[in-house]
C-alpha cells in the first residue's frame, strides 16, 4: 500500500504552512517539504504574527516549519502541538529498569504481539505498546485526525523529533489514517492479539500531560461506538482494552470492571473466551 493510499486527502480541516519568524534556508526547505507532506498550501510569512495569519488566511490551523514542526490551532494560538513522547518517556525509562508498565500488564502484552492502538492521538501509548511487543512485534496505530497522523509519520520518516532513542520504537508502529470503526470492520477475524482504545476524555484531567491538552483541538472526543467495540472483539485473538476515567459509564456499557476505581484513569479488559 502506497503512502498516498494511507493519506489520500485532508478533509474538513483547513491548514497552511509557514516558515518561522526568522527563516533560514533550511526552514524554507522544511516548509516546502511539510506543505507537500500535509497536502496544504505554503503561504509567505511576510513577518506576520500567527494571529494575523489566522485572520488573513481564515484557516483552522497553521503549521510552522520549525524543527520539530509546530502545529497551532485557531482556538489555542499560544499552545502549539508538536511530536513529543510525553508520558511515554518515564514509562519507557521505568521499563528499562525492570518496572512493569500498567498498560502492558493489564493488556497482557507479550513479545511478538500484533497490537491495534485504535486511537493513536499523541502516540505515547503506541510507543509503550511497541516496547512491550519487542522487535518481533508491531503496533497498527489508527488515527482519525489527518494532522495528528501526519505529524506522527513526519517524526517517523524524517527523524524530525529530537529523540533518537525513539527511532527503534517508531519503526514498529504502522500508522493508518481513518476512523477505527471503518478500518476494524475490514479486518479479518482473530487477526491481531490485542485491540486498545484510549478515546480522548470529554473533560481534561487535572495535571494532564501538556502535550495531550495541546493536541485536544485536533481530536475526536466522541466515545467508542458499539460498532467499533464489536468489530474489535471480532478482530482480537486475546483481548480488547479500554482506557477511561474510573467513574465513566463506558465501563458498564461494555461490561467491564475498571482496574483501579480510585485512580485518575482506569483500564477495563474484555477477554475472548473469558
Automatic annotation (TrEMBL):
InterPro entries: 16SrRNA_methylTrfase_J, SAM-dependent_MTases_sf. This is Putative SAM-dependent methyltransferase. It comes from the Bacteria. It comes from Alicyclobacillus macrosporangiidus. GO terms for molecular function: rRNA (guanine-N2-)-methyltransferase activity. Keywords: Methyltransferase, Transferase. The keyword Transmembrane does not apply.
Amino acid at each position: 500500500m502506497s503512502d498516498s493510499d494511507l493519506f489520500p486527502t485532508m478533509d474538513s480541516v483547513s491548514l497552511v504552512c509557514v516558515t518561522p519568524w526568522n527563516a533560514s534556508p533550511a526552514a524554507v526547505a522544511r516548509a516546502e517539504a511539510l506543505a507537500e507532506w500535509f497536502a496544504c498550501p505554503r503561504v509567505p510569512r511576510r513577518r506576520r504574527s500567527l494571529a494575523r495569519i489566522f485572520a488573513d488566511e481564515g484557516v483552522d490551523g497553521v503549521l510552522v516549519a520549525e524543527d520539530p514542526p509546530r502545529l497551532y490551532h485557531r482556538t489555542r494560538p499560544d499552545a502549539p502541538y508538536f511530536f513529543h513522547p510525553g508520558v511515554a518517556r518515564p514509562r519507557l525509562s521505568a521499563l528499562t529498569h525492570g518496572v512493569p508498565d500498567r498498560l502492558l500488564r493489564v493488556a497482557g502484552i507479550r513479545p511478538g504481539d500484533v497490537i491495534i492502538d485504535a486511537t493513536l492521538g499523541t502516540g505515547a501509548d503506541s510507543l509503550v505498546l511497541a516496547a512491550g511487543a519487542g522487535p518481533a512485534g508491531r503496533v497498527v496505530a489508527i488515527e482519525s485526525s489527518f494532522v495528528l497522523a501526519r505529524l506522527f509519520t513526519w517524526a517517523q520518516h524524517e527523524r524530525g523529533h529530537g529523540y533518537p532513542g525513539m527511532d527503534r520504537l517508531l519503526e514498529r508502529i504502522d500508522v493508518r489514517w481513518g476512523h477505527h470503526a471503518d478500518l476494524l470492520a475490514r479486518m479479518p477475524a482473530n487477526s491481531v492479539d490485542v485491540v486498545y482504545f484510549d478515546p480522548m476524555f470529554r473533560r481534561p484531567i487535572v495535571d494532564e500531560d501538556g502535550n495531550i491538552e495541546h493536541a485536544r483541538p485536533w481530536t475526536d472526543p466522541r466515545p467508542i461506538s458499539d460498532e467499533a467495540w464489536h468489530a474489535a472483539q471480532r478482530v482480537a485473538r486475546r483481548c480488547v482494552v479500554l482506557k477511561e476515567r474510573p467513574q465513566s459509564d463506558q465501563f458498564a456499557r461494555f461490561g467491564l470492571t475498571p482496574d483501579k476505581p480510585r485512580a485518575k484513569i482506569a483500564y477495563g479488559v474484555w477477554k475472548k473466551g473469558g
